[in-house]
Amino acid sequence: MNTQLRPAITIFVLLTALTGVIYPALVTGAAQVAFPHQANGSVIVKDGKAIGSELIGQNFTEPKYFWGRPSATGPMAYNGGASSGSNLGPTNPALVDAAKARVATLKAADPGNAAPVPVDLVTASASGLDPDISPEAAAYQIGRVAKARNLSIPQVEALVAANTAGRQWGVFGEARVNVLKLNLALDALGQK
Questions:
Q1: Domain total in the chain
Q2: Is this prediction's pTM over 0.85?
Q3: C-alpha to C-alpha distance for 178 and 57, rounded to whole angstroms
Q4: Vertex 127, ends 121 and 130: CA angle to 5°?
Q5: Are both 1 and 85 inside the same structural domain?
Q6: pLDDT digits over 145-191, tens only?
Q7: Tens digits of per-residue pLDDT, 3-36?
Q8: How does DSSP classify residue 22?
Q9: Residue 53: which H helix or E strand, with range?
Q10: Are 129 and 154 in a shared domain?
Q11: Distance between CA atoms of 179 and 186, rounded to whole angstroms?
């Protein structure tokens, strides 16, 4: 038994050190050197204070801000520690009711807007924390934001265009607008 136990314990200790300490330390060190912003959570800092992450949506509800996708996280919305989808299917009454409520909220915030509400403004993403909206969802909100901030529509359209990212490497995904960055650009425009 001793002849089998000693090699098993030795392999266990070596593999634990290799896969549990050495490999994670090397990967973490490489990430810190090559991609420090991403490795530290893509945190956005304003006036020396962390105000959010480029990777996690936030709950904007004031008319002067662009609104992001709804959050499906619990027990509170936009909870980075509870990333998950709602798992509600397209015919689930709870999803249908939530989408109708969100449409009603968007229409009430901008009653003059007769355009159809983009689907990403009424449905949560798979993670429940999506920080981005489609350019169509941003365009839908331009009139409300411009009116609330006393800006011209072309000014707000220019900000949306400046904050629209294309497909990754020109191939993957879709064009997107990071809501936090766009709202920070709006605030910066108001401070000038």
A1: 2
A2: no
A3: 9
A4: 45
A5: no
A6: 999 999 999 999 999 999 999 888 888 989 999 999 999 999 888 66
A7: 888 889 999 999 999 999 999 999 999 999 999 8
A8: I
A9: strand 49-53
A10: yes
A11: 10
